[in-house]
Amino acid sequence: xxxxxxxxxxxxxxxxxxxxxxxxxxxxxxxxxxxxxxxxxxxxxxxxxxxxxxxxxxxxxxxxxxxxxxxxxxxxxxxxxxxxxxxxxxxxxxxxxxxxxxxxxxxxxxxxxxxxxxxxxxxxxxxxxxxxxxxxxxxxxxxxxxxxxxxxxxxxxxxxxxxxxxxxxxxxxxxxxxxxxxxxxxxxxxxxxxxxxxxxxxxxxxxxxxxxxxxxxxxxxxxxxxxxxxxxxxxxxxxxxxxxxxxxxxxxxxxxxxxxxxxxxxxxxxxxxxxxxxxxxxxxxxxxxxxxxxxxxxxxxxxxxxxxxxxxxxxxxxxxxxxxxxxxxxxxxxxxxxxxxxxxxxxxxxxxxxxxxxxxxxxxxxxxxxxxxxxxxxxxxxxxxxxxxxxxxxxxxxxx
Length: 400
Prior knowledge:
This protein is mostly beta strands. The chain has helices at about 1-10, 15-30, 145-150, 160-165, and strands at about 45-55, 75-90, 90-100, 110-120, 135-140, 175-185, 190-200, 215-225, 230-240, 250-265, 275-290, 300-305, 310-320, 325-335, 340-355, 360-370, 375-390. A hairpin with an 8-residue loop joins strand 9 and strand 10 (about 250-265). It is globular, with a radius of gyration of 23 Å.
């Protein structure tokens, strides 16, 4: 079979035959050999994320001076154990155990994801639009935009960024619950409309941190194949949840628009691509403002507060060849409890996707803020991602 493929390549483009054969051999070498005795075992992948950062002023965990300093550090930020397998013809299973570190030498172990995906049921009508529904149960990275669905090692940049951090959390939005995804069809043959609904345990994100109030999320996604390697993915999101961790009945409604344009021109070779994305958030929040009248460190009363913060991120990336990517990102976000204050950050970066198992990225972050402790902060980041074990899925921005 391989010899027939090589012969076809030779007839089409003899000058690039050697290069294409070498690439084919590289990909074949990375495929694990099948073993009937272990065919039913889950695939196992270990992923490590390492970050070296240099800062021109003090930096703290979550930007809080009361937390440990993280400026000028070399840290193993996260190690993940990824297990996934087909459970039966109708469902797949995913389990990701993470060991995380915000500052060097301090680690926390947690379940990043434990998801059962029901992809089909033994009913003839189940897989046909307008039903065509998948059901996800367990703990998952919530579909609140493309960036939030990615794990740390799969991000196009080294951080989730200011906007995601302010609205969803420093590590994005992860929650326990149930989510459905239904294909509604499309307006033509080249587009697809998908409706996503979710109900989650409350909390897990910054704008709605109350764990006692169930969270609801709905989104409508429209994917359009524009032809000749061009595509557009548009998402509209709405979220409802409680704002106070103490269980007080204050609420937030948050909406978001997420757009991704992707270009991979087939006529100009296999290893070129361009990605342009942006996401906008807006939240209407009511919350409690503590007031310490006698300065003893304990709130004496709580006043009602309201805010309508907005945030946005935009990024672009171009693939130069098989391994090199260059890009930039811009974030601008209001603080969620005081929408008259905010901060922004610009991040140019270069990524080297040496293989599916080893990636390196260098970037510089420049932060401007209304808070003195983070204003005029410049940070150099050098990130390493090491993957060994079974081949994991590629992130959407990569074209290896």
